[in-house]
Amino acid sequence: MKKEKWAVPSGIANSVVSHLRLHARVYALALPLVMTLAPVVVAEEPAVAETEAEEAAPLPSHVEWMTDVAAAQALAKSQNKDLILFFTGSDWCGFCVKLEKAVLLQPGTAKRLEERYVPVVLDFPHGKPQSEELKKQNDELKKKLAVRGFPTLYFVDADLMPQGQMVGYKAPEDFWNSFDEIVAVGEKVSAAKAGAKVAEITDYKQLNAILEAVPEEVLKSGWMETMRKTIDASRGVDDAIAQKWSEKLEQFEREIAEQQFNSDLAAGFMKLKREGASPEDVLAYFDEAATDAADYPSRVLTVKFLKMRYLSEVKKYDEGIAIANEILASEAAGEREKMMTEAVKKQMTRFKEQGQPAGVPAIRMIKPGE
C-alpha cells in the first residue's frame, strides 16, 4: 500500500455535477432510530448513477490521501501530527462523493487539513478492485471504531486514539465549524498527554484529565481500556473518579451489547427474507429472539416492534395490533416509541378496514440536495 492522490472517479464527478441520485431498497420493517436499530438498506444499484453524457475530467485532489494506515501513523509520528480517517464508498455512496466535491477536494482544504493531520482514506467500494491486505486493514479499523455508516470521518492521534468524528454529509460551513471544534479537542488531549503515550501513562489524575477532554461520542470507540486503567489506578485512592468511570464503562458496555443484539437480529431477519422463508418461520425467529432476550426489556421491545411491522406486511393485522398493544403497555417503551407504535397501530387498523396491505414503498428516490 502506498501514499497516493485520491480523486473522485470521472463518471461519478460528472453525475454529481448534473444530478445526485440514490436508489435504495429500504425495508419498511427497519426499527426507528429512537429504538436504536439502524434501518436496513440494501443497495439496488450504485448510489451515484453514470450519465450517458460525455464524462467530465476527474476532480483534482489537492490533498494527498494515504491508504496504508501503518505508513500514515509512522508519518504522523515523524511530523508530530494526528490522522484523519475518511471512511467512504467511492463508487456507490452518493453523500460520500458529495462531501468530497463540496469540501475534501476543494483547493483550500489541503492547507487546513495537512497543517495538523495526515489524511487517510479507507474505501469500501462495491465494484472497484482492492487487495485482500487493504480490505482486511479497512475492515478491522471500521470494526475497531464502530463505524456504522458512510461517509464518516474519524480524527485520531498517531496511536489511533479517537478525538472526534463527523458522520454523514456536512455542508462546507458546518464541516469547518465541526473541524475547528475537533481541533480544539485534539489540543486539549495533547496537552493532557504531555508528550506521553496513553498506553504508558499510569497516573490516574493524568488519565482522568485525558478522558475528560475526549467527547463522549468517541469515548466508546477507543478509550474503554483507558477507562478500565483509570478505574484500577484510582480505586481506593480517589473513589469518586473510580465510580464515575465505572458507571460510564458499564453504560458503554450495555450500549455495545444492545447494538450487537440489534445488528444480529436484523441480519438474521434479512437472511430469512432473502431465502424466501415462510411467515411461520419468520415469526418463529422473532419468538425465539424474544425468548433469548427475556432478561432485557429493551431488546424484547425491539423484537416486538420488528415483529409488529412484519405482521403488518403479511396482512396479519389482528396479531400486529395485539403486539402494538403490548408495546404500548410496556414500561420499557418511552414516549416516542409509544407515539410511533400508535401510528403503526392506526395504520394497521385502517388497512384492515380497507383490506389493503400496510407498509411503505420498497423504492424511495432521494432527490438532489437531500
TrEMBL record:
Gene3D superfamilies: Glutaredoxin. InterPro entries: AGR/TXD, Thioredoxin-like_fold, Thioredoxin-like_sf, Thioredoxin_domain. It comes from the Bacteria. Signal peptide: none annotated. Pfam families: Thioredoxin_2. Residues 32-191 form the Thioredoxin domain. Keywords: Signal. This is Thioredoxin family protein. It comes from Blastopirellula sediminis.
